[in-house]
Amino acid sequence: MITKQCDKCNKTLEFSDSYAGRRVECPDCGDVNLMPGAPAGAAGDRAQAAGLPPDSGPEKEVMVLAPANWRAHPFLMIFTLGIGTLILWFRNLGNRLYITNKRTILRSGFFSKSTTEVMHDHVRNVQVEQSFLNRIFNVGTIGISSSGQDGVEIVAHSVPRPMQVKKTIDLYRPM
Ligand SMILES: [Zn+2]
């Protein structure tokens, strides 16, 4: 419940929480009052303001990231004459990190598939881990922890543009 004194007649206005940030009419004098608080869907507005799909409406892909094996392990190529890179590429084949306007989905494995997903509304923290070399090549490890009842954790390695990924998720999650 949100309460506010009417701007004109001083009567106490009582409205349910869903009226936060919305305009209401005073039942006594008819004056239009703005109820305090942030309107529902404010997180979506932040994404929309940044030119991304809003979190309301149909689910849309915002980013799809394949592991940047070479950039995450630049010396492996040289020291193993390319064989290590090839093994890594094969092992990470089929790994994808999808970010939609509703959630983050990590699909791993080509032969045995596994999928982990976290709704943006449940994201508690997004961490980026980068070594010095990772920063030069703009790759890193992303860890997403959720506060949902399942407490899912997503850890994605060799993610290209990790800071941009974090920024994108931060636009959708409650902050
Ligand atoms: Zn009034």
CATH topology of the largest domain: PH-domain like
Q: What's the pLDDT, averaged over the residues?
A: 88
* N-to-C span: 22 Å
The level-1 CATH class of the largest domain: Mainly Beta
Instruction: Indicate how many domains the architecture comprises.
Output: 2
Strand order across the biggest sheet? 5-6-7-8
Order of helices and strands: EEEEHEHHHEEEEHEEH
Radius of gyration: 23 Å
Tell me the CATH architecture of the largest domain: Roll
Bound molecules: zinc ion
Strand coverage percent = 25-35%
The total of helices stands at: 6
Number of strands: 11
**For the record, what is the CATH homologous superfamily label of the largest domain?**
Pleckstrin-homology domain (PH domain)/Phosphotyrosine-binding domain (PTB)
Q: Any idea what the shape is? A: elongated
Assembly category: single chain
Percent of residues in helices comes to 25-40%
